[in-house]
Amino acid sequence: MSLLVVDRLTKSYREGKTAVNGLSFHLNKGECLGLVGESGCGKSTLARCLLRIETIDSGTIALNGQPIEHLNERKLRPYRKQMQIVFQNPSAALNPKLRIKDSLIDPYEQFNHQLRLKHFTFTSKAAYIKQLLEAVELPASLADRYPHELSGGQRQRATIARAISIEPEMIVLDEPTASLDVISQGAVLNLLTSLRTHLNLSYLFISHDLAAVHQMSQCILVMKEGKLVDQFNRDHIFKEDRHPYTKELISIF
């Protein structure tokens, strides 16, 4: 069953550049959909459009069958808690003036304590934060630290904990391992896979790294210069009918 359906989405900027040009695809519930392409091809712009951080020029975005592309902020609010994002740079994503525990509790408080969660309990704020840290394999002792006191991998795990804190249906992962060393990259990818299964999450996994996308995703989209040039099941990556650009990416896989 489709969670997200995107139809002919287009986004241009004032200088005339079309960053996203007529994209159509769908994300099934419980699935990881990979999106791969070189830097500047429009991947991050697409992510911002899907989350309604940016407006679109044309096309539709439907979440659970509800078109959301033209909803105002008040009407969009119930859908905000269904969608979260993990950015490439965890240092920029975490407020340097807040302790980790305060960053983790913020999404819950933003929704006025009106969330009904299945996996995280609320016997106390401390217990909730402890569960979130345990879910991303971080010790509870990190709750009182500031972001600069954590390693890069720990900071990214903290941003993942914040993303899952309100149990969204979908998380956009925008180059989530690009700023990490190789060992941390593998550990974070394994963690994300485990969380998707345990929390029944759906991912849009955006990366320039085809190997990471192939590891994580059931289906893969290939984007070039604002357009989708290829889409296929991960098992079909080496088929002869792949687009020439896909084959170019495979050659450095």
TrEMBL record:
Family: Belongs to the ABC transporter superfamily.
Domain ABC transporter: residue ranges: 4-250
PANTHER family noted in UniProt: D,D-DIPEPTIDE TRANSPORT ATP-BINDING PROTEIN DDPF-RELATED (PTHR43776:SF7), TRANSPORT ATP-BINDING PROTEIN (PTHR43776)
Key words, A-Z: ATP-binding, Nucleotide-binding, Transport
Origin superkingdom: Bacteria
Species annotation: Paenibacillus enshidis
Residue stretches spanning the membrane: none
Keyword Glycoprotein: no
InterPro entries to which the protein is assigned, alphabetical: AAA+_ATPase, ABC_transp_ATP-bind, ABC_transporter-like_ATP-bd, ABC_transporter-like_CS, P-loop_NTPase
Protein's name in the database: ABC transporter ATP-binding protein
Signal peptide (from-to): none
Molecular function terms from GO: ATP binding
